[in-house]
Predict the structure.
Amino acid sequence: ERTQAKLAELAASGHELALYEAALLAENGVHRGLQGLIVVSVDEATQRRRLADRDGFVAEEIEQRLRAQAPLADKLAAATHVIDNRGTLAETRAQVETLHAQLTQKAPTA
């Protein structure tokens, strides 16, 4: 309800694109009220490693985080677009820039 109101406000003020980033967006069904869903995908082994290395999570915390999420296959099935986050930051950024260009119908910048 609040999300839809904010999106309508942005559209009315001339914004051609609005992104809504939220944890568990696909899991809670909010994506159904949006025009699309971008899923940032990574394999479970990489996800586990990043949670430990980046966030300092221990095994139990990692398990809790993963159990709170829908299976990747379910999120991918709901996705309109997918960003593959297994590579380097530069590779991921390039995918985001390409997707942004597609969504705004602009040519990607080199």
In short: The beta strands are 38-41, 81-84.
